[in-house]
Amino acid sequence: MNTNSFLELKALSKTYPKAGEGPSGGVMDFNISLPAGTFFTLLGPSGCGKTTTLRCIAGLEMPDSGTIRIGSEVMFDQASRTAIPANLRRIGMVFQSYAIWPHMTVFENVAFPLRVAKDKSFSRNEITEMVMESLKSVNLDSYADRSATQLSGGQQQRVALARAIVRRPKLLLLDEPLSNLDASLRDEMRKELRRLQQTMGITTIYVTHDQSEALEMSDLIAVMRHGVIEQIASPKELYFSPSTRFIADFIGTNNWIDATVAEIREGIASVQLSDGAVIQAKVHEGAPATGAVRVAIRPENIKIASLESPPAGANRVDGFVRHSGFLGNNIRYSVEVAGGEVVTYGPNGQPLAPGEPLSLWFAPSDAVAFV
Amino acid sequence: MTDLTSSGAHGRPKRLRAREGNLLGTSMALIVAILVLPPVWFLFKASITKLNAGLSSDGLTWDNYLRLFTSEALLGSLMNSVIFAVFATLVSLVVGGILAWLVVRTDTPFKGLAFVTTIVSLGTPYILYVTGWLYLLGRSGPINVTWKLITGRMDNLFDVNSLLGMIAIEGFLWSPLVFLLLSATFRTANAEMEEAARMSGASVSSTIWRISFRLAFPAIAALAIFVFVRNLESFEVPALVGMPGGIDVLTTQIYEGVQRMPPDIGYASAYSVAMICCIAVLLYFYGKISSAAERYAGITGKGYRPRLFKLGRYRWLGAAIVLANFVIVLLLPLAAILWMALTPFVQPMRLASLRYVSLKHFENVLGQSYYHGLFLNTVIVAAGTATVVMLLTLFTGWVVARRKAFGKTSEQLVTMPLVFPGLVLGLAVLQLALVFPLPVYGTLWIISFGFIIRYMPYGMRYSFAGIMQIHQELEQAASVAGANTFEIIWRVVTPLLLPALASGWLFIFLIATKEMSMPLLLSGPGAQTIPVAMFDLWSSGQSGEVAALGLIWATLMTILSCAFYLMTRRASAKTFG
Before B262, cis peptide (omega within 30)? Predict the structure, then answer.
């Protein structure tokens, strides 16, 4: 047992018998160990098993096998047939639909976890104090007496958050909490969630399919696909060194160029484009030394040679402008090069006209080759 | 925008188009008013009219009301009515509610049986069920016969012609509908509400009590009022079960007033007016509570996934309850009816009686032109009613949904018949028919007229709900393209509304073929519907024919109710209320 970690999942599996069409969902052999205070995100497309994992941790779903430990307490262990019920795990959770009970006031919604607590009974004053403190932390202290039905989506979301943290749990689970909000509110709530998480120092597991949310808020991200983890990494690492083609495609925008491997040396592949040009790109261990690959380069890492001269060792590709689009602060170019079409940005001064030839460059460390 | 979109080469000026809509609104309000108001007026007038021996008017009087409020009959029948309605409501809520929860929210086996029960009962005339129950709980039924066999006594264990018998039969009669409506409520419930409580630390029982039940409470309360009103208005059970045992309720009092020689129309009308007032008050609260229920249901997320409670080692208990319900509510009464249809006279179910079994009753029903006429009458009346009602409510629904002139008035007028018990509406239409210049009394015309009034509110629910789901921009696009109001309704709204109109049509057809109390007062010798004929046959002791006729009819209607169930399975069952 890793004693430094606060949350540990070992070989967690939960699969559903396939019902109807579509992905059957579920999660297979999930392993993770998180230090206390981590903002951990489960990221992936729908049906990838992220919500199933979260619900297993919550105790709302019974895993088929594996172990779940929170702090020093084993919450689930298939081997010893341990399964602590959801209500005794003392975890805070925010649901996708917020699940604000319409028959209670805002105050009563938030007070509910204190009123039903099994291990401790709270006095009336304690309850008032803790509820108001919790409401204050989400800026809703003036709404305590409102009926839950009179709240906007954003306010309901805050109430759900206040309810989740009122007992000061050690672990907070957030199931796509921002997906039902409109764009401007979502941005605001991102910042607020992160601020709250950091001031409370609470270990948080966040489920989302929105990669920009994940990148902005998380300490650590696990990208999931078809029930398994593709990569666990920090946002930066995930963005700049994706370990699979799926992640490179799923996170951020990427340009793809088709090429053939010439040789691989020390993790750097020399690949040849269809017009004969040779460029260098990072490869992950175990990539075959021959055959077709696709090279991913972020648009912001591709420079136009006529505007910014390339340093020694940079990859150079030639092409011509297919399309230019005026975005206000800059211009977006679609450039046709050997092996694909790439997007890059230029200053908004004098745009290059479609059909004009141009030369592009990018650093070998900014290019990743995938089989 | 007004000028640009509405005065082009194709469009007509907007003013004119608005005027078309308002013209339609005004006409619909007028049509509905002409349908609904005269019966109400004649009923009220009869209640304050003094009749002389020749049944002609002899001035105005409050005598009928004075007699009503000073008589002991009112108090007694009111007490009976309330006790009957309250406990029958409880029976159907408990039976239907538990079943709905088991079927929708748990992993109990045999779920299909609950739906089979509902579908069959939707197609079966109430009077047929009631006769089945009368046999089961009656003198020659298995319960009393077994009791006599075991104890050797001559008296009965259970007197079916009692308040208790009425409550039991009425309660079972309504439980399939309660099941259907509550299962819709439970199905749309957001499971995350319960999970949030579990994550907050609440135990399973505390979650069910503090969250699940409280959330469903407005819907259950609204349904309770609705069923209570239906039970107050109920006539089949009081007439067949209560009257022979001398137990009077409000509806049987009205019926007896009309049947008396000479008819005491004034007294019956006063009774009816009093009853309408009570029901109006109840329905007012029903409206309030059900809108609260909708508000509760409104807060659900899109993250909804149906999740079932695992019964675990109590699974057998769930199975037993579902199975018991199927046997008690469906199998036993149907078996009793089949037994009655196969034996020449009412007798206990014994092996020795098997030699009397014959298909004679079925042959009679299928062979005689009297019965063929009944089938035809019922289908004509029900189909005609359903067609007219859906057409009327298509236009009124549009006028109300799109807030045209007099929309609010039309809405109130269309829903007004909800406060009429079937028997009361029958009485009101009867009086209208008697003064109508054409000889409509005792014809299919007058029965259809009464049905149209009675079922307009139901048709409205289907049409209105359907129109509300049609985005108004679809109509505006047609308007910009140059269509006038009637073209919009005919070529855009109607095709989109077709599924709702078809469901509404089938539902009205089914309940019109089941209705007994209203046509009972309006039928003539040549214009009977099947439930009325069954009541007549039953009253003259021909229970075998009743059973055979009912079984054949119920089989046909069950096929239709299957179709109806399949059509509306996805739609909210609110449309039933």
Answer: yes
